[in-house]
Amino acid sequence: MVDWEVKCAERTHYMTRSAIREILKLTQRPDIISFAGGLPAPELFPVDRVREAADLVLTERGTEALQYSASEGVAELRDLIAERMSRRGVQVTRDNILIVNGAQQGIELIGQVLLDEGDSLVVEDPTYMGMLQAWRPYNLCYHTVPTDHDGLDIDALREVLKAHPKLLYLVPNFQNPQGVTLSLERRRQLIALLDEFDGLVVEDNPYGELRFGGEDLPSLYEIDAEYSGKRALDGRVIYLGTFSKILAPGVRVGWIAAPMAIMEKLVQAKQAADLHSSPLTQLIVSATARDGFLDKHILTLREVYRDRRDVMMDAIATYFPEDVHFVKPEGGLFLMVHAPKHLDMTALFKVALDHKVAYVPGADFYVGGAAAGGHTFRLNFSNARPAMIEEGIKRLGAMLKDVLVPQYMP
Amino acid sequence: MVDWEVKCAERTHYMTRSAIREILKLTQRPDIISFAGGLPAPELFPVDRVREAADLVLTERGTEALQYSASEGVAELRDLIAERMSRRGVQVTRDNILIVNGAQQGIELIGQVLLDEGDSLVVEDPTYMGMLQAWRPYNLCYHTVPTDHDGLDIDALREVLKAHPKLLYLVPNFQNPQGVTLSLERRRQLIALLDEFDGLVVEDNPYGELRFGGEDLPSLYEIDAEYSGKRALDGRVIYLGTFSKILAPGVRVGWIAAPMAIMEKLVQAKQAADLHSSPLTQLIVSATARDGFLDKHILTLREVYRDRRDVMMDAIATYFPEDVHFVKPEGGLFLMVHAPKHLDMTALFKVALDHKVAYVPGADFYVGGAAAGGHTFRLNFSNARPAMIEEGIKRLGAMLKDVLVPQYMP
């Protein structure tokens, strides 16, 4: 018999299965209304358009789509991305773009290229769980920065930057899990601080195009370019984008946009990881997106998701107890509820299932785990239809009121 | 300005770009006949079948194909693979199978789960370059084992196993780059040795189904099961398979087949790497392969590639100088030529381009680099049509005779 535990590498001791994915398995009973997943609304997938695109690609360019191809990605898709990223004046070129299998692989590759074991990393607290999971093998030292309704606390950021951390990881728009957006003023302050401390930031932006109203804020790479006067992607920002939330996750197409000087190492890491992403899915994405289709599709997503957020807001106002708090998200898929501190939302998850409703307990989004965020939970509003959202929030509100009542007993 | 070299992780110093991929860029002039790539014949891709499969999948299961899905892979594809791997009596189940983006990602994930920095690894010499590249960041200690026409030298293997290396990596069928196949007797000896020394082997088998004649040899996982009497995939072998050579590389679908006890860690590594492989391409592969199509398609590939190998053999006999050596491959895509030791086939690559023919210099396949394999070169016979193969070998033979002549001058 092989003793696999002995055979495993040291780093596997830090590796864990995604807590969310385990939770999702429990929420798939048809009687449960689930706000747990981070799933886009499947009824909005442009299935017909994708089918036509697949047919076109395999008819006109079948052998190209099925053969080995470039590690950097398919040229026309990289051009499409570069064009979209250049729309507000910063020149992003094909050479800045590396196609990856969803932004998650971008996180993985950036880690391989930049992180040594024991390095220090600055993160929002709470932060994106998939990043924590991907980088766990590096046994990083985390500097957490608290957030409010305008995102990251800049004074706290200045303090941690004094320790010269290797990297800052940030979801500036409609953050997962909190739904919070970093304000324009703080974006400018952040870039100035990075310049002062010779810092780097990974700008993970899966939700940025899903804004429900008001003006889009400039990306960190744009503010960085403005700050340095370069008008090119050649500064302190490595950007992560994905088609998962604006088209469909199943194609597994995302990208890293990075300064040319670091592209060579990222491409090497991509080659080692899986040679290259599928040219078939890349060409399908490109053929689906083109001729303005993607931009129009995004407008639809914004509308539908805005309605669902509004339904959830109204239902929370109606059904939740008063002593819960959250930031109203201006876009994206999520919000995070802070219940009274004595509530253990991880333990209450099973109670919620009894009420036939599900959320993701917040603890695992916090570097400090349950001690820091045991009283929080994340709600997704993109996946369920409005009537279901209202009913689910009603169930969850009843559960919360149930467990909170004893606190007010004499 | 950011000094990226200072920012990069230590491991990036060991990372390199694939030498082959760099070479391929030089061989894309239309006047050059290239034996350099490892490309399947694109004219044999079943493009129509894939297009019909894509249409069917997107018509009948569009939202499933485009949504997030399981990290382990799509159930029906895992079943199809398990069924094919069980055909000779060893019970392989869905739970043994993890879908990955081509076998290259399998190599990457196995490395993450099993290799600590500085670990020792046993490899054939020469060995698969993509493995060397993927695992370079671990700064491994290599034990090389020489090969002959029956594969790995078993006596030499016994010697290196005494040092208790972490892992053995092997391409037992029609090895890349040499085209050599490990004999049945040596397979049995190898498994017995692994058992004696409590060793593990990665059986990388991209070409195994492309045999040109004679009986297929049992896989190492089959011999291991027979040896232990278990009739299950639960021993010392981690198997890597891929659809790249038997269907099409562009779908990027491969798999790891491993004992259940190590699957959990492999799945965790897969989640961290990119969440999961594309359900769209997985479902397309499954719909393409089913109803016996894949088996029939493989028969076609065997025939065409056998003809091309034969044409290359005949041309080599006609046009090459006498003092070159190689093992005639019984399948797969490659053979490796050993020229006289004083020839530097890396330096001669440019001379070959002047003769409008290309190969891959062998040095990078050797752990010892040019000192060990500078006089070797790899030839691919799957990608070029027969007339081109003959003409290319003629050109290469002329070049070799040119550079060898001075040796015979008084």
General description of the model:
Two copies of one chain form a homodimer. Chain A is built from 16 helices and 13 strands. By secondary structure, chain A is α/β, with parallel strands linked by helices. Chain A has two domains: 4-45 and 295-408, Alpha-Beta Complex (Aspartate Aminotransferase, domain 1), CATH 3.90.1150; 67-291, Aspartate Aminotransferase, domain 2 (3-Layer(aba) Sandwich). In chain A, the strands form three sheets. An eight-stranded mixed sheet of chain A has the order 2-9-8-7-6-3-4-5, sandwiched between helices. The N and C termini of chain A lie far apart (61 Å). Chains A and B meet through helix 3, helix 4, helix 6, helix 7 and helix 11 of A and helix 3, helix 4, helix 6, helix 7 and helix 11 of B.
Topology:
Two copies of one chain form a homodimer.
Chain A: H1 4-7, H2 19-26, E1 33-34, H3 47-60, H4 62-66, H5 75-85, E2 97-100, H6 102-114, E3 120-125, H7 129-135, E4 141-148, E5 151-152, H8 154-161, E6 167-170, H9 184-197, E7 201-204, H10 220-228, E8 237-242, E9 254-257, H11 260-274, H12 279-289, H13 293-319, E10 334-338, H14 348-354, E11 357-358, E12 360-361, H15 370-373, E13 376-380, H16 386-404
Parallel strand pairs in A: 1-11, 3-4, 3-6, 6-7, 7-8
Antiparallel strand pairs in A: 2-9, 4-5, 8-9, 10-13, 12-13
